[in-house]
Amino acid sequence: MMLTTQWLLDENPQTRAQSRAGQAYRLFLALLRNPLAIVGALIILLLLVVAAFAPWLAPYSPTESNLSMRLMAPSAAHWMGTDELGRDILSRIIHGTRITLFIVLLVAVISAPLGLLIGTVAGYFGGWIDKVLMGLTDIFLSFPRLIMALAFVAALGPGIENAVIAIAITAWPVYARIARAETLTFRNSEFISAIRMQGASHGRIIFGHVMPLCMSSTIVRVTLDMAGIILTAAGLGFLGLGAQPPLPEWGAMISSGRAYILDQWWVATMPGFAIVIVSLGFCLFGDGLRDILDPRSRTK
Amino acid sequence: MIELRNLSIFYGETQVVKEVSLSIARGASFALVGESGSGKSTILKALAGQVTDWTGQIRLGDHSLEHGRDPALVRLCQMVFQDPFGSLHPRKSVDATLSEPLAIHRIGRQNERVLEAMDAVGLARKFRFRLPHQLSGGQRQRVAIARALMLNPPILLLDEPTSALDVSVQAEVLNLLKSLREDHGLTYFLVTHDLPVVSFLCDELGVLRNGELTEVTSVERLKQGNLQSEYGNELLSKSH
């Protein structure tokens, strides 16, 4: 089996694997045609690489304080300066990528499947199930996200795991709404009737036939939401309810730099840059994904 | 094979089908014709188990159809839908669509059966892993027919199976349906307003008007242009 472009783009694939690989390759080609999405993908890739090799990339320890080097301005030795305990800010940001990734991935893994399940079940069955589930969703949606996350963290106690749980609890209603709306557009369509006539169970229809059609809009939405998740996590960190010191969480770093913002601007600004750049990366990539995954915009 | 006794169907308060009684022999091909809104598709949906608010009796073979989800229905009849663009899952390849019923009922030899079904409906094997949007309308309808036949049901319900297709493709699909019926000894229940399709594919037809069966007659009389009821002849004159 040779992995050539011709094999991938074959109009008449011989096996399931070939047809799947071909589809993935076509999506990849479509993504390549969108320069902004490439920029987003590169930023995310950079984030992944930095997170993977953080201990080797960081020039100093992220937690060891050195009071003789307090609040040094950016220089050749400390590219982003040092904070109020003399810790190298660049090293802290590099180690902070792990925390950011941990939060973002866990929230996505918890909230996206939950929202997808609730939305598709509500849309597929309709009736009172729909009313109950959507009522629940509305309750969650009606609170501002950060406020509700705050309330949950306050109840669960501060800490990074609880921050993740709180953000996940506040993030799923959006996905449920989207999945339900999508499900409603085809719940009465003939291909669903056809599979029902063939004796498929409700579970099989929802997981095998309804969910795959809601998947792309959910993936796009999750990617776009990543920026919001990072900001919420940073917000919780800033308020002292997320990652606890000395963990180098970006929001908490901004918070501790607040006291010196007029004289030592870099302490708060550098982690702010990191948040902006990573959020922007997810936004751009999500936008590009929407363009290629949205079935309405996809041509033959 | 199909027997309806005093079948009445309701959509909420409205009665859309009124006391219809019909009997269709095994291996026959029966067409239900009528204007849109006459209730013909509703009868089809009741047979398919999609409409459950009915009274009277529906017998398929030896089985008396239950209201609601009837597991026995799956092996008794399957349906070919009107719109081949809407009746296939847009993200599933031909192979996935055809092997799904086998997977549901845990039937073995999936690979061979899918290929046999594709051969039976005249779909080239190279199309096996294509997605619906990579197929033409006629090819899609062939996939839909193959899917309906995967579980070897004795009865096939046809909901205007050619009306969404080009004229040239219509003939192909009709020929395919005709030969499949001969090969597999299938019983057809066709709903259409296209009388030429009826005379090509069916032996018998029923004329439905406002939910009431006005007449049941043979296709010979249709071909002679000599239906019994006034309304039937009116329909006939409109179709020319």
Order of helices and strands of chain B: EEEHEEHEHHHEHEHEEHH
Look up the CATH topology of chain A: MetI-like fold
* CATH superfamily descriptor of chain A: MetI-like
Top-tier CATH class of chain B: Alpha Beta
Sketch the major β-sheet of chain B: 6 strands, mixed
Flag low-confidence runs of chain A: none
How many E strands of chain B? 10
Chain pair sharing the greatest interface: A-B, 26 and 34 residues
Mean pLDDT of chain A: 86
The H-and-E topology of chain A, N to C, reads as HHHHHHHHHHHH
Query: What structural category do the secondary elements of chain B indicate?
Result: alpha/beta
Which descriptor suits the 3D outline of chain A? flat
Give the name of the CATH superfamily of chain B: P-loop containing nucleotide triphosphate hydrolases
What's the total count of β strands of chain A? 0
Question: End-to-end distance of chain B, in Å?
Answer: 32 Å
- Could you give the order of strands across the largest sheet of chain B? 6-7-8-3-9-10
Would you give an account of this structure?
The complex is a heterodimer of chains A (300) and B (240). Chain A has 300 residues and is mostly helical. Chain A has a single domain (31-55, 90-293), classed as MetI-like (MetI-like fold, Orthogonal Bundle). Chain A is 72% helix and 0% strand. Chain A contains twelve helices and no strands. In chain A, helix 5 (89-125) packs parallel to helix 8, helix 10 packs parallel to helix 11 and helix 11 (250-257) packs antiparallel against helix 12. The radius of gyration of chain A is 23 Å and the shape is flat. Chain B is an alpha/beta fold. Chain B has one domain: P-loop containing nucleotide triphosphate hydrolases (Rossmann fold, 3-Layer(aba) Sandwich), CATH 3.40.50. Chain B has nine helices and ten strands. Chain B has helices at residues 40-47, 73-76, 94-104, 110-120, 137-149, 167-184, 195-201, 219-223, 230-239, and strands spanning 2-11, 14-24, 29-33, 54-60, 63-64, 77-80, 155-159, 187-192, 204-209, 212-218. Chain B has a six-stranded mixed β-sheet with strand order 6-7-8-3-9-10, with helices on both faces. Chain B has a four-stranded antiparallel β-sheet with strand order 2-1-4-5, covered by helices on one side. Chain B is globular, with a radius of gyration of 18 Å. The two termini of chain B are 32 Å apart. The chains are: A mainly alpha (300), B alpha/beta (240).
